[in-house]
Amino acid sequence: MPYEEILERFKAQLKIMNLKVTRERLMILEEVMKRKDHFDADQFAADLSVSGVKVSRATVYRTLDILHDMKIVHKTTLGHKHQHYENMVDRAHHDHLVCLKCDKVVEFLEPRIEELQEKVCVDHGFEIKDHSLQLFGICGDCKEADAEANN
């Protein structure tokens, strides 16, 4: 989806919510669109500050929530006590493997898991709106490093 289309959708959403289209909100959208990683709102605000963009943490959080509602970003905990976000524009749904030692996040999509989740919902008369699957463990690099340290 072209940036201009996303920008117009964002402006329209702000208008619906009776919120002003501010330079800060537009900068947040622009920066989110550049991101390809999983990020938390506090680090994102700090990154904006380092690049010279003055914006309050509250504005960052509110704007990320608006972008989440618009399905521009996805938010998940990734095993931490705070939310992480990721840009979902032109990206398909996926799930995550999270290393408990180094915090590495691996994205994956397994159609059989998706089919099974859909079947479970149908079997229980449940209409799914969204989901997030996260598997926690130790990544191959950390397992290898542990094995080397123990030899």
From TrEMBL:
Binding site for Zn(2+): C99, C102, C139, C142
Top-rank taxon: Bacteria
Stated family: Belongs to the Fur family.
Organism: Lentisphaera araneosa HTCC2155
Keywords in alphabetical order: Cytoplasm, DNA-binding, Iron, Metal-binding, Repressor, Transcription, Transcription regulation, Zinc
Localization terms from the record: Cytoplasm
Summary of subunit composition and partner proteins: Homodimer.
Gene3D superfamilies: 3.30.1490.190, Winged helix-like DNA-binding domain superfamily/Winged helix DNA-binding domain
Binding site for Fe cation: H93, D95, E114, H131
UniProt key word Repressor: yes
GO molecular-function term, one example from the UniProt record: transcription cis-regulatory region binding
Keyword Transport: no
A Gene Ontology BP annotation from the UniProt entry: regulation of secondary metabolite biosynthetic process
InterPro entries to which the protein is assigned, alphabetical: FUR, Fur_C, WH-like_DNA-bd_sf, WH_DNA-bd_sf
Note on how the cofactor is bound: Binds 1 Mn(2+) or Fe(2+) ion per subunit.
PANTHER family referenced in this protein's UniProt entry, alphabetically: FERRIC UPTAKE REGULATION PROTEIN, ZINC UPTAKE REGULATION PROTEIN
Cofactor(s) needed for function: Mn(2+); Fe(2+); Zn(2+)
A Gene Ontology term for the protein's cellular component: cytosol
Protein's recorded name: Ferric uptake regulation protein
